[in-house]
Amino acid sequence: MQIDILRGNLHALYKLLYPASKRMNWLSLTVNDYVGRCNFAIGKFTSLVHQLQKNIDDAEERLHDIETADLFRLPEYDGSQLPDVTIFFDRITKLRAIDIKNVVRKYNDIGPILTKVSS
Length: 119
Known about the structure:
Helix content: over 70%
């Protein structure tokens, strides 16, 4: 997937670096300019790869959080006395609503991350 996204940038970098693989007059005054452009392009490409990897890791982390969300956790109680059934189920409903809200927020955050990755 990353190669598909970076294909255009890889091609541009290849076109810039290719002349150095041929015979080149290294005594020319344009060598410093060429090396500077290559260093800039390599730095820009490296930055793009790191940004892409960070966004992919961020999306994978959110997916992992969604996969491992515990939507059936039980409320805590002091252990000395069981709560009334209606109170117990009200607490379960509130906990589940909080957990679902967190899962939905993480799910909604994935869309913009994928948009950043594909652009």
